TrEMBL record, chain A:
SUPFAM superfamilies: MetI-like (SSF161098). This is Raffinose/stachyose/melibiose transport system permease protein. Its main location: membrane. It is a multi-pass membrane protein. Residues 73-262 form the ABC transmembrane type-1 domain. The lineage of its organism: Bacteria, Bacillati, Actinomycetota, Actinomycetes, Micromonosporales. The chain crosses the membrane at residues 9-35, 67-97, 109-130, 142-162, 183-208, 240-262. The keyword Cell membrane applies. The keyword Transport applies. One of its GO terms (biological process) is transmembrane transport.
From TrEMBL, chain B:
It is found in: Cell membrane. The chain crosses the membrane at residues 31-55, 90-112, 124-144, 181-200, 221-242, 275-299. One of its GO terms (biological process) is transmembrane transport. The lineage of its organism: Bacteria, Bacillati, Actinomycetota, Actinomycetes, Micromonosporales. InterPro entries: ABC_transporter_permease, MetI-like, MetI-like_sf. It is a multi-pass membrane protein. Residues 1-24 are annotated as: Disordered. Residues 86-297 form the ABC transmembrane type-1 domain. It holds the Pfam family BPD_transp_1. One of its GO terms (cellular component) is plasma membrane. This is Raffinose/stachyose/melibiose transport system permease protein. Gene3D superfamilies: MetI-like (1.10.3720.10). It comes from Actinoplanes campanulatus. Keywords: Cell membrane, Membrane, Transmembrane, Transmembrane helix, Transport.
């Protein structure tokens, strides 16, 4: 707001300490507990580990239940990459037409898109649909559901961005002989790069962290995803807090890396998405 | 390739006033672009949402169903364990939304003010938004341990005896709500920050010249002009709060007893127990609740936007 006023040093120091205590201590607690021995971790204290068992804990968690965690990481990666890749292309195509063709038809469709943001998904009927199509308890089924759930958010973000792409470009490309497919994929889609980066990052984090959808639509150990494994872990190792927190740490690392690389896109994307919705 | 020339002349003709538009000219924005995405959205989102209304009127095992009218709804509202979920959902959404609105605004004002290290603080406050909700839930379950937990140990140091948090029936729902606020306040803050930063600096200057103190500048400049951001935060956090499942399930599973059961956990429990019709009825109730609360907000906001 007012950059000319001198920064208030006392307030700054107080605020920084407060933020660190409130927001960083829980993460420090995760890291420290993940490095403790089992008996020490059971004390639940926020303290420096007397002996570091980080590597042993890491190995124990990874090897637990026949490398289930590795399988879960692979499954979650497949789920995230496939659903995000598909939704980006399909949502961009739909948003392009919805944004360029303004009419009674498309404004009705826009309302339907908006409903996708508000309506809580009907879970058991979705299982019914998956069962009718033979996709229940399969990875492709879950991928399709994730695509459907992400569609509304992505279409709205794309629409807002496409509005800033000049129509003259479409006309020029059409005059040069581009058909609709060429126009979209050769001319418009590459221009959407900034918003595509944002959507890919934000959606990847959403899908990676999604717990409810795999719980309902892809139950069973052979299809484990990271969030489900994490949740089941607490039931199986009630007192091995060091292993539980190592698991939490591992599951948290991919979003952390995403955040460090793409902080600006994530924040701007979430702000834009929420202001739209 | 042979259709090149006619298509080109057609679009050139378009620019002439009254130029004859050949009927067969294809739009560069074909409707079939909507089909692949729309099909997935329809089959896996819209169809289940619509079918939910029918299935909620049946006794249903996925393989066969028997129409029983409104019995599921009657059972839902008769059984205190189920009906209380509706009340808990409203309390949970109101508490989380209210705290996110107030705290998010306060943090945003702080972080847009004359202060050092705002980049650090913004990152630190925002990061929990991206962390696995299950991970956050399990972590706080440990931090909130009634006797050994870090939170109560810290409160002991300053002479306060903390509540039993998740184990105390009176505190369980509120405890989860507080963790929800901890995780989600960063998003509210950055939305507010975007709203505040888009206010032209001259307004603050002008208010200052007119002798308005910090409080008046906040009350009469920041607050009204950041209203769109505020409405986004309210709507977003209300919808999110009413639909919340993973955090509650990770922390309390609706317990102790049914004291922290919300609609989404009731739906899951009934599904697990095999009462698919009842579970779907819960879904429909949640849907209606969201509509009843969010639609008026949408309307009143749009109206005040129009009259401004």
């Amino acid at each position: 707001m007012n950059t000319r006023t001198r920064p208030n040093y006392w307030l700054s120091a107080l605020a920084i300490v407060l933020f660190a205590v409130v927001f960083l201590i829980p993460f420090a607690f995760i890291v420290l507990t993940a490095a403790k021995s089992q008996t020490e971790s059971a004390l639940l204290q926020f303290s420096w580990p007397t002996e570091w068992a980080f590597v042993q804990n890491l190995r124990a968690v990874v090897e637990a239940r026949d490398y289930l965690l590795i399988i879960a990481f692979i499954n979650s990666t497949i789920l995230t990459v496939a659903s995000v890749a598909v939704v980006v292309v399909l949502a961009a195509m739909a948003a392009f037409v919805l944004q360029r063709r303004k009419g009674r038809w498309t404004s009705g469709l826009n309302l339907v898109v908006l409903s996708g943001l508000v309506i809580p998904p009907a879970v058991v009927p979705t299982i019914w649909v998956l069962q009718q199509t033979g996709l229940f308890k399969t990875m492709p089924g879950l991928i399709l559901v994730e695509i459907a759930y992400a569609m509304a958010f992505c279409v709205l973000l794309f629409q807002a961005f496409i509005a800033s792409v000049p129509r003259e470009l479409d006309e020029a490309a059409t005059i040069d002989g581009a058909g609709p497919v060429g126009l979209f994929f050769r001319v418009v889609f590459p221009l959407l790069r900034p918003i595509i980066v944002t959507i890919v990052v934000v959606q990847s984090v959403f899908v990676w962290n999604d717990f409810a959808s795999p719980l309902y639509f892809l139950p069973g150990d052979e299809n484990a995803t990271v969030q489900l494994t994490l949740f089941n872990f607490q039931g199986q190792y009630t007192n091995a807090y060091n292993l539980l927190f190592m698991d939490i740490l591992l599951v948290t690392v991919p979003p952390l890396i995403m955040f460090m690389i793409f902080q600006r896109q994530i924040v701007s994307g979430m702000v834009a998405g929420s202001v739209k919705g | 390739m042979t259709t090149f020339a006619p298509a080109a002349t057609a679009s050139r003709l378009d620019h002439q006033p009254g130029g004859g538009r050949p009927k067969a000219r294809k739009s560069p924005y074909p409707y079939w672009f909507l089909i692949p995405g729309g099909l997935i959205f329809t089959i896996f989102f819209l169809v289940p949402s619509v079918m939910a209304f029918y299935f909620s009127l049946t006794r249903w095992t996925l393989f066969d169903q028997e129409f029983i009218g409104l019995d599921n709804y009657v059972q839902f509202f008769r059984e205190p364990a189920l009906a209380s979920g509706l009340w808990h959902t409203i309390v949970y959404a109101a508490v989380t939304s209210g705290l996110k609105v107030v705290l998010g605004m306060a943090l945003a004002v702080l972080l847009t003010g004359p202060i050092l290290g705002r980049g650090f603080m913004r990152s630190v406050a925002f990061f929990p938004v991206l962390v696995s909700t299950i991970g956050v839930g399990l972590t706080f379950q440990v931090l909130m341990h009634p006797t050994k937990g870090v939170i109560n140990q810290a409160l002991d140091l300053i002479g306060i005896t903390g509540p039993a948090w998740l184990v105390d029936p009176d505190w369980a729902l509120l405890s989860v709500a507080l963790v929800d606020v901890w995780q989600g306040v960063g998003l509210a803050t950055v939305i507010y920050m975007a709203g505040i930063l888009s206010i032209p600096g001259e307004y603050f200057e002008a208010a200052k010249v007119d002798g308005a103190g910090p409080w008046h500048r906040f009350r009469h400049v920041t607050l009204p002009l950041a209203k769109p951001a505020g409405v986004s935060v309210i709507i977003l956090s209300l919808i999110g709060g009413m639909r919340k499942f993973d955090l509650i399930w990770a922390m309390t599973k609706g317990g102790p007893g049914f004291t922290s059961d919300v609609m989404a956990s009731v739906v899951y429990k009934q599904y697990q127990a095999g009462f698919y019709g009842l579970s779907t009825a819960g879904n429909v109730v949640l849907f209606l609740l969201v509509i009843v609360i969010v639609l008026p907000l949408f309307w009143s906001f749009n109206r005040s936007e129009d009259t401004r």
